[in-house]
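Example with several molecule types.
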Amino acid sequence: MISKKVSFTAMEHGNRCDNDLALEHDAENIQGQADRVIEWLKSMDGDSPNKISRLDHCLQGATRAKRDGADEETMICTLLHDIGDVICPANQSQAAAALLSPYVSEKTYWVALHHGLLQGYY
Ligand SMILES: [Fe+2]
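Resulting structure tokens for the full complex:
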């Protein structure tokens, strides 16, 4: 946990030390991203009107992708495609796509972004 604080209240008054402190914090935040994603996945193991939990649905999909010979990117996208439900159910596809976008191809991003539409259509 970082106990130091920057010296400014308006960014234009920041200095090099403030910037270094913010970068240090950002690096720690990025370091913990994978753990937070795992926690989000675990939180999807709650009650559901469906036969299986949202977590089981994601694990089932990723397992099926693996068994089908899908590449790693597709398996990860399948595993995380509904993770947006944790923080913003009304636009969960966009949230999942935003999470995945720095790490996946444009095609996979598109699939994540639009999977809610496909789900609604079918
Ligand atoms: Fe889904």
